[in-house]
Amino acid sequence: MHENFYHNVKVYYEDTDAGGVVYYANYLKYLERARTEALSTIGLSNNQIKEMFGALIIVKSCNIEYKKSAHLEDELTIRSFIKSVTKTSFFMNQIITKGKDIIAESQIHLVFVSDKGKPVKVPQIIFDNFKPYFCDSIKL
Predict the structure, then answer these.
(1) φ/ψ (deg, to 5) at 45
(2) Do 72 and 16 form a contact (C-beta atoms < 8 A)?
(3) Which of 60, 87, 133, 140 would be a feasible disulfide site paired with 109, CB 3.0-4.6 Å?
């Protein structure tokens, strides 16, 4: 059984347009924060990955579908889990909700690259420690 990582955010005035609705690009910031915090739960940071493995995690692609609007002072939850993995990347699904309402759904393709931008193997410690967040269908 896989687990989900949950991260909560509050919508601030700076996140909204003049009508108090979250500006669409800010959802990407919320998703990034949730991925960074998920990394933190396994005892790593982006800086540590760079220092320890000479690698960066980059977003190769992002597909997001907006279902409903979020508004000023809403409390949102981002649910994240890993859908599939390869030797150099993984695909993460992230769902933003307000209560039981789905605000947005996304599929993010994350790739590990060297400082020269070439794909590199995902460090084993990432595979080992992120296993609880892997979808049940993943075979390593």
Answers:
(1) -135, 170
(2) yes
(3) 60
| Mean pLDDT on 40-58 | 92
CA distance 84 to 73: 34
Catalytic annotation present for 74: no
Q: Tell me which H or E stretch contains 64.
A: strand 55-66
Joined together, the tokens standing for residue 59 give 């977003």
Say how far apart CA 103 and CA 101 lie, in whole Å: 6
pTM: 0.89
What the chain holds in terms of domains, given with CATH numbers, is 5-133 (3.10.129.10)
Alpha carbon distance 5, 128 (integer Å)? 16
Cα 30 to Cα 101: distance, rounded to the nearest angstrom: 17
